[in-house]
Design goal:
By secondary structure, this protein is mostly helical. The chain has 2 domains: about 5-80, 2-Layer Sandwich (Alpha-Beta Plaits), CATH 3.30.70; about 85-120. Helix content is about 60%, strand content about 10%. The chain has 4 helices and 3 strands; from the N terminus they run E-H-E-E-H-H-H. A 3-stranded antiparallel beta sheet has the order 1-3-2, with helices on one face. The protein starts with a strand and ends with a helix.
Length: about 120
Protein backbone atom coordinates (compact mmCIF):
# COMPACT_ATOMS: atom_id res chain seq x y z
CA UNK A 1 0.00 0.00 0.00
CA UNK A 2 1.20 3.51 -0.80
CA UNK A 3 2.48 5.82 1.91
CA UNK A 4 2.71 9.61 1.81
CA UNK A 5 6.30 10.84 1.88
CA UNK A 6 5.93 14.62 1.77
CA UNK A 7 3.28 17.23 0.96
CA UNK A 8 4.25 19.49 -1.95
CA UNK A 9 2.05 22.48 -1.10
CA UNK A 10 4.07 25.69 -1.64
CA UNK A 11 7.13 23.67 -2.61
CA UNK A 12 9.35 25.39 -5.21
CA UNK A 13 9.67 23.69 -8.60
CA UNK A 14 13.40 23.10 -8.21
CA UNK A 15 12.81 21.21 -4.96
CA UNK A 16 10.13 19.06 -6.61
CA UNK A 17 12.58 18.22 -9.41
CA UNK A 18 15.33 17.43 -6.90
CA UNK A 19 13.09 15.04 -4.96
CA UNK A 20 11.96 13.35 -8.18
CA UNK A 21 15.59 12.82 -9.18
CA UNK A 22 16.53 11.64 -5.67
CA UNK A 23 13.81 8.98 -5.61
CA UNK A 24 14.41 7.92 -9.22
CA UNK A 25 18.17 7.58 -8.67
CA UNK A 26 17.54 5.50 -5.55
CA UNK A 27 15.20 3.20 -7.51
CA UNK A 28 12.23 3.95 -5.27
CA UNK A 29 8.86 3.71 -7.01
CA UNK A 30 6.75 6.81 -6.34
CA UNK A 31 3.97 8.91 -7.76
CA UNK A 32 2.68 12.44 -7.26
CA UNK A 33 -0.80 13.72 -6.60
CA UNK A 34 -1.55 17.21 -7.98
CA UNK A 35 -3.25 20.06 -6.16
CA UNK A 36 -6.12 19.91 -8.63
CA UNK A 37 -7.75 22.69 -10.60
CA UNK A 38 -8.68 24.77 -7.56
CA UNK A 39 -5.68 23.88 -5.42
CA UNK A 40 -7.77 22.19 -2.72
CA UNK A 41 -6.47 18.65 -3.13
CA UNK A 42 -3.29 17.54 -1.38
CA UNK A 43 -0.27 17.64 -3.69
CA UNK A 44 2.19 15.07 -2.39
CA UNK A 45 4.85 12.50 -3.14
CA UNK A 46 3.72 8.97 -2.38
CA UNK A 47 5.91 5.88 -2.06
CA UNK A 48 4.23 2.97 -3.84
CA UNK A 49 5.71 0.27 -1.56
CA UNK A 50 5.37 1.14 2.13
CA UNK A 51 8.37 -1.07 2.96
CA UNK A 52 10.54 1.43 1.01
CA UNK A 53 9.30 4.33 3.16
CA UNK A 54 12.10 4.28 5.80
CA UNK A 55 14.79 4.40 3.12
CA UNK A 56 12.97 7.14 1.19
CA UNK A 57 12.41 9.14 4.38
CA UNK A 58 16.11 8.89 5.29
CA UNK A 59 17.12 10.08 1.82
CA UNK A 60 14.62 12.93 1.98
CA UNK A 61 15.75 14.00 5.45
CA UNK A 62 19.38 14.10 4.32
CA UNK A 63 18.42 16.06 1.17
CA UNK A 64 16.35 18.59 3.14
CA UNK A 65 19.18 19.17 5.62
CA UNK A 66 21.63 19.80 2.77
CA UNK A 67 19.13 22.05 0.98
CA UNK A 68 18.47 24.05 4.13
CA UNK A 69 22.19 24.66 4.63
CA UNK A 70 22.67 25.64 0.97
CA UNK A 71 19.67 27.98 0.82
CA UNK A 72 20.56 29.58 4.15
CA UNK A 73 24.13 30.19 2.92
CA UNK A 74 22.77 31.76 -0.31
CA UNK A 75 20.41 33.96 1.72
CA UNK A 76 23.20 35.12 4.02
CA UNK A 77 25.46 35.86 1.04
CA UNK A 78 22.73 37.97 -0.59
CA UNK A 79 22.07 39.72 2.69
CA UNK A 80 25.76 40.57 3.18
CA UNK A 81 25.97 41.85 -0.40
CA UNK A 82 22.85 43.98 0.15
CA UNK A 83 20.98 42.21 -2.65
CA UNK A 84 18.33 40.45 -0.55
CA UNK A 85 14.88 41.58 -1.65
CA UNK A 86 12.75 43.42 0.89
CA UNK A 87 9.12 44.50 1.03
CA UNK A 88 10.26 48.00 0.03
CA UNK A 89 11.73 46.54 -3.18
CA UNK A 90 8.39 44.88 -3.93
CA UNK A 91 6.52 48.17 -3.37
CA UNK A 92 8.94 50.10 -5.60
CA UNK A 93 8.57 47.56 -8.43
CA UNK A 94 4.75 47.39 -8.28
CA UNK A 95 3.37 50.49 -6.56
CA UNK A 96 -0.07 50.22 -8.18
CA UNK A 97 -0.47 46.65 -6.96
CA UNK A 98 0.49 47.80 -3.45
CA UNK A 99 -2.02 50.67 -3.50
CA UNK A 100 -4.82 48.44 -4.79
CA UNK A 101 -4.06 45.87 -2.10
CA UNK A 102 -4.10 48.51 0.66
CA UNK A 103 -7.35 49.95 -0.70
CA UNK A 104 -8.95 46.50 -0.81
CA UNK A 105 -7.87 45.76 2.76
CA UNK A 106 -9.31 49.12 3.86
CA UNK A 107 -12.58 48.34 2.06
CA UNK A 108 -12.82 44.94 3.73
CA UNK A 109 -12.14 46.44 7.14
CA UNK A 110 -14.80 49.08 6.52
CA UNK A 111 -17.56 46.66 5.49
CA UNK A 112 -16.60 44.27 8.30
CA UNK A 113 -16.48 46.85 11.09
CA UNK A 114 -19.26 49.23 9.94
CA UNK A 115 -22.15 47.27 11.54
CA UNK A 116 -20.36 47.17 14.90
CA UNK A 117 -19.40 50.84 14.85
CA UNK A 118 -22.95 51.74 13.79
CA UNK A 119 -24.39 49.58 16.58
CA UNK A 120 -22.09 51.07 19.23
CA UNK A 121 -22.81 54.64 18.19
CA UNK A 122 -26.54 53.95 18.48
CA UNK A 123 -27.40 55.82 15.32
CA UNK A 124 -29.78 54.49 12.71
CA UNK A 125 -29.01 55.58 9.20
Amino acid sequence: MAKKLIVMRNMPDDEVEDIEALLTDAGIAFYQTPAGNWGISMPAFWIEDASEYPRAKALLDRYQEQRQQRVRAEFEALKRAGKQRTIIDEIREKPLRFLITIAFIGFLLYITLYPFINFLSGSDR
